[in-house]
């Protein structure tokens, strides 16, 4: 056996080879796995950075200074959003930095998903 052939065969059995990875939960080898991965990436891409300016619990609204909202065709600005989940109003306060997703729900700009930024 040639040295190059032996080295090649040894590399194939190595745990460092390209097809060996530790992401057991990532199933990119099937169409469903690729779709799940793409959906996760799309959702993260729709998240925007924002800073809470005001929380109005009685009105169910949050004022945010935010970055661009490409899914809504809006640039960075400060504006008021409805909170889809009323519990969000108790979790946030002025000055909090968040990652959020906003959508137009029945014509009202609404925070549909949010978490405090690290």
What would your notes on this structure say?
This protein has 118 residues and is α+β, with helices and mostly antiparallel strands. It has a domain of 69 residues: OB fold (Dihydrolipoamide Acetyltransferase, E2P), CATH 2.40.50.320. 25% of the residues lie in helices and 34% in strands. The protein contains three helices and five strands. The protein has a five-stranded mixed beta barrel. Strand 4 and strand 5 form a beta hairpin. The protein is globular. The protein starts with a helix and ends with a strand. About 7% of the residues have low confidence.
Q: How much is the radius of gyration in Å?
A: 23 Å
Write down the CATH class of one domain.
Mainly Beta
Q: Give the end-to-end Cα distance, rounded to a whole number of Å.
A: 55 Å
Q: Number of DSSP strands?
A: 5
Question: Main sheet: which strands, in order across?
Answer: 1-2-3-5-4
User: Which structural class matches the secondary elements?
Assistant: alpha+beta
Major sheet characteristics: 5 strands, mixed, barrel
| Molecular shape | globular
Oligomer: single chain
Number of helices: 3
Arithmetic mean pLDDT: 80
What is the CATH architecture assignment of one domain? Beta Barrel
Order of helices and strands: HHEEEHEE
Poorly predicted runs are 14-21
Q: At the third CATH level, what is the topology name of one domain?
A: OB fold (Dihydrolipoamide Acetyltransferase, E2P)
CATH superfamily of one domain: Copper binding periplasmic protein CusF
Helical content band: 25-40%
Beta-strand content: 25-35%
């Amino acid at each position: 056996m040639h040295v190059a052939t032996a080295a090649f065969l040894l590399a194939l059995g190595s745990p460092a080879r390209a097809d060996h990875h530790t992401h057991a939960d990532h199933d990119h080898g099937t169409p469903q796995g690729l779709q799940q991965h793409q959906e996760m990436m799309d959702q993260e891409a729709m998240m925007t950075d924002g800073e809470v300016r005001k929380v109005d619990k009685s009105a169910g609204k949050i004022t945010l200074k935010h970055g661009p909202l490409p899914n809504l065709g809006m640039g960075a600005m400060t504006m008021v959003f409805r909170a889809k989940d009323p519990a969000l109003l108790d979790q946030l306060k002025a000055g909090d930095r968040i990652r959020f997703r906003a959508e137009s729900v029945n014509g009202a700009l609404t925070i549909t998903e949010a978490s405090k930024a690290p």
